[in-house]
Amino acid sequence: MSCRFVRSPFRHPASSSQGGFIIIAVLWILVALSTLATIFSLYLSNSARALGATDTGVQVDALVSASLELTAYQLLRADEKDLPAQGSFRFRMDNAEALVTFTSEAARVDLNAASKEMLAGLFEVLGAEQKAAGELASRIVGWRTASKPGATDDEGALYLSAGLNYSPRQAHFAHVNELSLVLGASPALIERALPYLTVFSKSADVDVLIAPPEVIAALPGMTPELLNDFLKQRPSLPRDQKAIAAALGPAKIPATLPQTKAFRVLTALRFDNGRRSSSEAVILLGSGKSSDKANTGAGASAGNKGKDDDEKPYSILSWQDQAETGSRPLKQAGR
User: What residue ranges do the domains of the chain occupy?
Assistant: First the structure.
């Protein structure tokens, strides 16, 4: 008797299920790997951008530091009593070109030294009504003036009655932006005034040979006619007090060509890839002690690192990146 084994034409159901499960598992693994690859690609791309931005930032800082070094070098080459009031130069480093302009801080109105009349005149020129301009000038003088021992704090009482939770400093302004804390200073007027203000010149007078027309228009006694005449004469005027006084006429009092060692340096950078950047810094020549980007905390100039105080050719009083410049319409309200 013989036996024959007949092969079944049907496969075991378990074999089909197992194969399907393996295919699904493989697909999930492929999807996961694809997702991980995408995430890793994005990570590398973002890391490259971050490193590129960091490298660019380091390069910008290096270029600005170089511009400050070169500005200080040019100024220190001149006689101390005959420092140039302004100037400009260009230089190229690696893949960027820098245009550097420097101007004496005497071209601006000093918040800590200017007279009440000068301050009021500037605010009026910039659009404030005569009464409001005078009141704001009074509040600025009150803010910067120390109270006398035993005297009634009338200035502080004004802030208290206005509902403010602070009193005036009654000391010098530390920065021009502190003007926003002064009672009666509107944000719009502050924005218009900041390009013409400083706390670094330490002089009640302004250098009218380099000052903007807005500052000259603010001089006590200045009229639109006198201003136009003076601006026409200015390019040919020597740095001589008598000649300047004659050209200014009645507005000559606060224009004595003050000497200051503080200079504002604007550095405009243009990279070969089309990127542009600008920075504005104020330096003080031969000051000995550096404040290391005082207003931004962003690091010290290369010229100030590793040197003793007596050897430092300059210090940085202020540093602002992406500085904007521009003139505003001139107004002679009530003047």
Answer: 60-107+259-321, 113-194
The answer as to CATH 2.60.40 being correct for domain 60-107+259-321 is no
Looking at the DSSP bridge assignments, the partners of residue 315 are: 284
Distance CA 231, CA 209 (A): 9
Confidence grade of residue 241 (pLDDT, cut at 50, 70, 90): confident
Residue found by looking up tokens 């060509």 in the block: 257
> Longest Cα pair distance anywhere in the chain, in angstroms?
143
Residues 6 or more apart from 289 whose CB is under 8 A from it?
Answer: 309, 312, 315
Structure tokens at 125: 């020129």
274: left (phi over 0), alpha (psi -120 to 50) or beta: left
Name the CATH architecture for the domain at 113-194.
Orthogonal Bundle (1.10)
Burial class (CB in 10 A: 0-12, 13-18, 19+), 296: middle
Q: What is the mean pLDDT of residues 166-171?
A: 92
What's the rounded Cα separation, in Å, for the pair 35 and 43? 12
Residue 312 contacts residue 289 (beta carbons within 8 Å): yes
Q: Where is pLDDT greater, at 97 or 255?
A: 97
Q: Give the tokens for residue 84.
A: 């140039």
pLDDT digits (tens, 9 = 90+) for 53-96: 456 778 888 999 999 999 999 999 887 778 899 999 999 988 89
Per-residue model confidence as pLDDT tens digits over 182-225:
999 999 999 999 999 999 999 999 999 999 999 999 999 899 99
